[in-house]
Design goal:
The protein is an alpha/beta fold and about 700 residues long. Helix content is about 35%, strand content about 20%. The protein contains 21 helices and 22 strands. Strands 8, 9, 10, 12, 13, 16 and 17 form a seven-stranded mixed β-sheet that branches. Strands 1, 2, 3, 4, 5 and 6 form a six-stranded parallel β-sheet that branches. Helix 2 links the parallel strand 1 and strand 2. It is globular, with a radius of gyration of 27 Å.
Length: about 700
């Protein structure tokens, strides 16, 4: 049949940290099993594809970064399709499907994919399969797995339609809708309900598991003393007695060999990716020793590299895996005596993969600098580990964790618990995976991004970065440990770290890190200095605003006759005397008029002797107390609001408070308030730099 001959489609991905690329490659690999041939390309490689004349079905994988932006690798493509001179029928020949990746802990969920999707629609392109929106906040696989499963039938129907009808304008989205919804949620719904269906998946799984646990508890009341408790290592009924729907075993595609001992000195893998080695000229602990979290400021000397940045920009820092964890992994894999061997990686001859990234260095070097050994293993990795596990009960438990029926256990004991490969190998001692499995399933070790906490006007040739040392307490699944990058940085600078307000010792010790500028496209002060700004930055979220204020202070000194808009800062921390970051500097800004209003709160301090009633605890409470001023700045004075800090709690609470403030000020309902806030975002007057 003609459709069998022409069953070739194109996969395009835009990936910031490798997840979209990994999913795209997975689809490409599965294509042959379903009778298709797939070509794959990053959106940035525009010489590899031409959508203007593309007649094959196209499958897009697009992540979201920053304040709802498309990933860096998709920016050029987005600019191209947003060209206003393109006619409305420009892509009328194009049939496509799109899977957007995002995180509901952040604003503008899946906006990178949504931006491309809506623009393709405006230019006449047609869906052959409904768009999926996968949420990393609750587990991408909840949406990704059923979306991929339904994709194959959608492609078959598309190719069949193309073969039997010469470009008929059939609504293929409708004819594949039922298949996707049956796969994802077991119900038939309208296309507009797609995203609701995908979220119901998560809710129904969780509710089902809760129901099972309640039923199990009630039936075992008489034997409480012998009731088992589910853990990473073991399950309880009904899961332990259930038949399992297990994902297909991913096909191996790599051959990894260890050759002669590497004798060359191995540098940090930085040059080709735009990283620069810079010295650390100062390390200061900003918090007291008894603070809940330790905050550290690093001053980096970037004068020799001539690295330019603006307040609001960030810097990527390369960090290694912990040496102790690398050593334990080598020992566990029985490879400790071969850690200095050079690694040779090749594609298996029967693999459908098109190519692999070049790998150079010793085994120890690659495990230290190239692979993210701390990442939570995906279900496909867990499934692959089963075949290299000898003990029967351990095999069964790993199968449960990667099964559909064990999704709640996987979420509780692997994903939410931040379990890594080493934790799994500790829990399942009979599991001994080959090295090739690690290279196939572990993601690339990613740099960590930190906001600049300075202005080059005030600190020429220098940049300050601030971070909390993240602590993960011990739990049954893993021992206590520090955050990968923050823990490494704290240890790296321990010999030069000094308390705030003390003079550093001049011992001549020079420490360095590898950094790369990470410019922000939007998170900068308004071009017009007369525009008022409101800044919300509790804890280390204040970092970019220190840069803003240093910049504004210097601008005021240089232009005394100019008009400058008000600057409001809402800052919060736990204790006034323990972790009030940049206290002296902020009070100086307030005293000299750079900062018009410094509004602070301390969530853990006891009320003062006056016993203040309803004392504000968090930044959103102070926003509410100053609602009239905030509303006036945003709605009447056309000012800007900047929010920096925690995405899961603070940013959501601030957003809810903003909706309340605007609703009350304009006397409108929540829906209209949401539209107003969306307008602020669209105008780039409500900007976020947040993390989870």
């Amino acid at each position: 049949m003609p459709c069998e001959v022409a069953a070739r489609f194109l996969i395009l991905y835009g990936s910031q940290r490798g997840q979209a690329q990994s999913i795209a490659e997975e689809i490409c690999q599965q294509a042959a099993e379903h009778g298709f041939t797939a070509d794959i390309s990053c959106l940035s490689n525009q010489h590899n594809y031409n959508l203007d004349s593309e007649i094959r079905p196209v499958v897009f994988m697009v992540s979201t970064t920053g304040d709802g932006d498309p990933p860096d690798t998709a920016q050029k493509f987005v600019r191209k399709i947003k060209n206003k001179s393109l006619p409305h029928h420009h892509f009328s020949h194009l049939r496509y499907a799109l899977l957007a990746l995002g995180d509901t802990n952040y604003a503008n969920f899946c906006n990178g994919g949504k931006t491309i999707d809506s623009r393709l629609q405006q230019l006449g392109a047609k869906h052959f399969y409904p768009t999926g929106h996968a949420d990393d906040g609750t587990g991408l696989e909840v949406v990704v797995d059923p979306w991929i499963e339904g994709l194959w039938d959608a492609l078959k129907k598309t190719f069949s339609s193309m073969a039997t009808s010469d470009q008929q304008d059939a609504d293929l989205s409708d004819c594949t809708q039922d298949n996707f919804h049956k796969t994802a949620s077991g119900q038939e719904k309208n296309k507009s309900d797609l995203e609701v269906d995908l979220h119901l998946l998560k809710l129904s799984e969780a509710d089902s598991q809760k129901g099972k646990e309640i039923k199990s508890d009630s039936s075992d009341v008489e034997t409480l003393s012998t009731v088992l408790v589910a853990s990473l290592k073991q399950s309880v009924p009904p899961l332990s007695q259930s038949a399992l729907s297990v994902p297909a075993l991913p096909a191996s595609y790599l051959e990894v060999r260890l050759e002669q001992v590497s004798t060359e000195r191995e540098p940090v893998p930085s040059d080709k990716d735009g990283y620069h080695e810079v010295s650390i000229s100062k390390a200061v602990q900003l918090t007291q020793d008894d603070a809940v979290k330790a905050a550290i400021l690093l001053e980096l000397d970037i004068s020799e590299q001539n690295l330019a940045y603006q307040p609001g920009d960030g810097f990527d820092i390369l960090c290694p895996n912990r040496a102790s964890e690398v050593e334990e992994l080598l020992l566990r894999l029985d490879l400790q005596t071969r850690k200095n061997c050079a690694v040779q990686v090749n594609l298996l001859k029967n693999s459908s993969k098109k190519g692999i990234a070049a790998v150079n260095g010793s085994l120890q070097f690659i495990l230290t600098w190239c692979l993210e050994i701390r990442s939570a293993p995906k279900k496909a990795f867990v499934r692959a580990l089963v075949d290299f596990t000898q003990n029967g009960s351990e095999k069964r438990r790993l199968l449960e964790l990667c099964s559909k029926e064990g999704s709640a256990d996987y979420n509780s004991f692997v994903r939410d618990a931040n379990v890594c490969l080493l934790d799994l190998l500790r829990a399942f001692p009979s599991c001994l995976p080959p090295l090739s499995l690690l290279f196939e399933h572990l993601p690339k070790l990613q740099p960590r991004a930190y906001s600049a906490a300075s202005s080059s006007l005030q600190h020429p040739g220098k940049v300050n970065l601030v971070f909390n040392v993240v602590e993960f307490p011990a739990r049954p699944e893993h021992p206590a440990r520090k955050g990968l990058c923050t823990g490494w940085l704290a240890g790296h600078v321990s010999s030069i770290l000094r308390p705030l307000g003390t003079v550093p010792a001049s011992d001549g010790l020079i420490l360095a890190v590898h950094v790369r500028p990470r410019p922000s496209s939007t998170f900068h002060l308004p071009a017009d200095p007369s525009v008022p700004v409101v800044m919300v930055g509790p804890g280390t979220g204040v970092a970019p605003f220190i840069g803003f204020l240093q910049q504004r202070e210097k601008e005021r000194e240089a232009n005394r006759e100019a008009t400058f808009g008000e600057m409001w800062l809402f800052f919060g921390c736990r204790h006034k005397d323990k972790d009030f970051l940049f206290r002296e500097e902020l009070e100086r800004f307030a005293h000299n008029g750079t900062l018009s209003h410094l509004i602070v709160c301390f969530s853990r301090d006891e009320p003062d002797a006056a016993g203040t009633v309803n004392r504000p605890t968090y930044v959103q409470h102070n926003l509410r107390l100053h609602a009239k001023n905030v509303a006036s700045i945003l709605l009447k004075d056309k000012g800007s609001l900047y929010v920096c800090g925690d995405a899961k709690n603070m940013a959501k609470d601030v957003n809810d408070t903003l909706l309340e403030i605007i609703g009350n000020e304009l006397q409108i309902d929540k829906l209209d308030a949401m539209k107003t806030v969306a307008g602020l975002r669209e105008e780039k007057r409500y900007l976020q730099d947040i993390w989870s």
